[in-house]
Design a protein that fits this description.
five-stranded antiparallel sheet; about 30% strand; globular; disordered C terminus; MCTP_C; transmembrane helix; C2_domain_sf
Amino acid sequence: MGATGASGVNSDRALPSSEMYQLDIVLKRGHNLAIRDRGGTSDPYVKFKLCGKEVFRSKTIHKNLNPVWDEGTKLLVDSLQEPLYVKVTNMHAHTQIECDLFLCRAIPVNLTLQDPHYPDVDLGTLELTVTLRPKDGSIEEPHRDATVSSVRLAELHRKHQLWRGIVSISLIEGRDLCPMDPNGLSDPYAKFRLGNQKYRSKTLCPQWREQFDLHLYEETGGVLEIAVWDKDTGRRDDFIGRCTLDLSTLAKEHTHRLELALEESRGSVVLLLTLTASSHVSIADLSLTPLDDPIERREIMGRYGMFRPLSNLKDVGIVQVKVMRAEGLMAADVTGKSDPFCVLELNNDRLQTHTIYKNLNPEWNKVFTFNVKDIHSVLEVTVFDEDRDRSADFLGKVAIPLLHIQNGEQKGYVLKNKEMTGPTKGLIYLESDVIYSTVKAGLRTIVPPEQKYIEEEPKVSKHVSVRVCVLRCILFVINIGTFINSCFEWDSPQRSISAFLFFVVVVWNFELYMVPGALLLLLTWNYFITAGRESGDTVSAVEEEEEKDDKDSERKGFMDKLYALQDVCVSVQSALDDVASYGERIKNTFNWTVPFLSWLAISVLCVATVLLYLIPLRYLVLAWGVNKFTKKLRNPYLIENNEVLDFLSRVPSDVQVMQYRELKFDPGQSPSKRKKTNPG
């Protein structure tokens, strides 16, 4: 049930609407709450929501219609006209607080809980005490009950895997790191740990420039641990140093630039960190579905409307998933039964249901709500069998792109195997709703997608064989790309300035006839180089090369060569996979595999056509180059990206299209149908 309150303010003097106030609330008890459990009781807890965000949640009082909480919380209020919503579980109720608030005076409040659909039904009352104080920067020490409540709330969030905030981290670079290799350099990577969450960065030297998010389960923050390691091929990695950061010391909703010194060696790590609140993460019963409430659904749809401000681009929308039941699951235990539970994953967000023991047709009837940071994300629903003595057994999986969801439609999905290439035994019934901002979704399409925290190390495929000449060509292209990117990153100011001047001169004076002329000069240059080599002593050159190879072979062991060859093969294989994948993605863009992306491509191409018609190509290329070269100068901590590749990364490849395709099933073969038709 829920209650909604809006409080008026009465005082001897006028109160400025722009002043910040502190609202102290003590939740005392409930009286004669409605029965919602089969045993004639309820398990109530209370939630407060302000400005659409959950700001407090009480502990659960089990099997009690007259619960006593005696919990308090302190809220910062910058608008006296903003209503405070109060909701109690197990019922749908709505009421209005009618009282005047006096400054620094405790006002007792009794809420009569009502259901808007059944206004004549008595659902009980709540007893509160509310005090309004001016916020002058000196907040008194919180009440002991409020502190205990905060600890209990953190424990509740951890138990149910509900995070209350997001820690956004942009890992920029390492400075003055201790060299660990004989050549005086290092191949550093960073490991992050926040509670049970872990993240490992890429291995770069020493600028990482990558962004990722971690979940914040505790209201007060937590301790972020950072360890820097040096990657060594063929042997154990070397430890460089570590540092810690207490998140409770940082202000929320603000980006902090931090340079953290390593404790056990010289050097430091530079990063940008932002703490933001997360308002739409929840697990509830079917009777407490947020989007089924017309008032709340209208509020959420208004929040993600077309003309809403674009303050937080990561808050694209929300998705609500009702996990109803499964049928005909695989028997994983020797008794012919299973203990199934369901795990829902959206990028790095992970929630799960409770376990139904000894059942092949479980009914969970739970509702999960996620924040949507990228509308092109894929919701993965996996069913496992719980085993107390070992890791859970896989029973089946489905993958549903958010853009494929039909709001309010309950569907039965055929479970697939681990590789998502074929069916396995069982169906799972889901009902999903997704609400998102179209403008934010379009803008997020051209930024790098969120990476998984834990990804498998790439391995050499047995089916890939590359000729040496092809290998050299691919490595040459990779090296050229690395060199060009280093010019944009200003790793060497002299090289970047020279490249910028060369770019401007070539683009400004370029004509089409210069292309065959440049090829002619290249051929002529190589002709004279080859002639000079032939006139030399070929035999002595070969002997010198053989002697050099012998020395190199003595210097390097067999295992070092093997590991080096493996790294090269992995790089080449990854490059070939990327080329093939992007080719498929381009094809699928023009095939309208994802209509949202195809419409977005049409919009961009229309704008490009108009610009090319009105503005000469030379000026557009110059503008692009100047912007590319000066990005690092304008924002030293900018994480570089390629908008075209980011767009294509959202288009599914042919393999992903096959994985996301829904398998057809015969309703006549459903286990419930077989039970009805079986005379025994």
